[in-house]
Amino acid sequence: MELETGKPTIAPYVDDDSSKRTGTWVSASAHIITAVIGSGVLSLSWAIAQLGWIAGPIALVVFSVITWFTSTLLADCCRDPVSGTRCSCYMDAVRSNLGGISNKFCGIAQYVNLVGVTIGYSITSAISMAAIKRSGCFHRKGHAAGCHVKNNMFIIIFGIIEIVLSQIPNFHDLSWLSVVAAVMSFAYSCIGLGLSIANVAGGSHSRTSLTGTTVGVDVTDWQKIWNCLEALRDIAFAYAFSTVLIEIQDTLKSSPPENESMKKAASVGVSVTTMFYISCGVLGYAAFGNAAPGNFLTGFGFYEPYWLIDIANLCIIIHLVGAYQVFCQPIFKQVEDWCLNQWPNNKFIKESPAIKLPLFGDYTFNAFRLVWRTAYVITVTVVAMILPFFNGILGLLGAASFWPLTVYFPVQMHISRENIRPFCWKWIWLNVLVVACLIISVLAAAGSVAVIVKDLQTYRPFTSVS
């Protein structure tokens, strides 16, 4: 297909602070897998149960292709078209390529989503910790025991861990944690796959259908509609990593060119993720049928093999510990850079003396970083305890940010950067993609609102119980 476009003049290649950038496509792939697979994989069997054997897998493939395509567009926008310098964050890329109010709109969408994800991960990790405790209780006291536990203590434990890890100075020093988190995501996904296969091989006769849950049998008319919208939201949100793509790309070495490395990493990350998503979603649906639970690991119960379920939940916890850092490091950097620009001579903000830590070597200590990041994690922890139903809100934030961050800005920056003429063939189909994804995001957000309204009917702050 011949592109009806005129190429712009791109500024000379410029690299700044190259010494601190040691990342490769391998480390970037680990960051992507850590950010993408997340806890979203656990709900995909439920999502396919709502959509059925045809629409469910198709939706997974369509969203994976859209995410991969727009991420390649975004990877080409990491440098300022005038100066040629790198953009260190998503907002910088939008400012350089689009300018105007787009920059502020991007900032609101990105950082509200990032904050929301960190709150949601605090709640999800606490639920997994509580599941391990309940599993041990059932094993000791029998299956008839209630074994209910409050989640607040586990939210606090997770917060304490994150206070320590939040002192990692920046994204450039985060590769080892992302690798560990990515391995953990593979581990609990494989455990879920193995248990699903065992369930099907053991003669499970779960009822499935081409269109998913049956109206009049499993759900009402309105429940079917809302559940399908929520399923689309879960699938769209499960692929979201555009919020941190530029930040990940900023860790890459300049040779080979970072946009080429990032495209390779995006291809690997999305391909691996899609393989796991389809496997977990399809086999989970085959195992549980139209009664698939929201978390397919809980569908296997807290009983035997209880130790294997415990290992899976432990892997989820470790993964979320790393994923939390992937999503909060851009927040930390944005606030710290802004404060340094506002008060460049303030010693509390500026000074970073090197101190020696046993086993870790030299560490640049900064008092402002310690205070600000600790305060952020504490605030997130308190909000997680106040709003135990926050996962519904997180779904709304994910649906609302999917369109601007994953689709709209990458497409518009590509059009601007390539000087694509209005109403030429490429301009038309790119904007058709934008409008189609906007409609999906609005519908998915509507499904999230329905979930939030339902949760508010039984809401009590600080009373999250597993």
Automatic annotation (TrEMBL):
Main location: membrane
Domain Amino acid transporter transmembrane: 21-453
GO cellular component terms, semicolon-separated: plasma membrane
Top-level taxon of origin: Eukaryota
GO biological process: amino acid transport
Single GO molecular function: symporter activity
PANTHER family (alphabetical): OS05G0424000 PROTEIN-RELATED (PTHR48017)
Family membership: Belongs to the amino acid/polyamine transporter 2 family. Amino acid/auxin permease (AAAP) (TC 2.A.18.2) subfamily.
The protein's name: Amino acid permease 1, NEUTRAL AMINO ACID TRANSPORTER 2
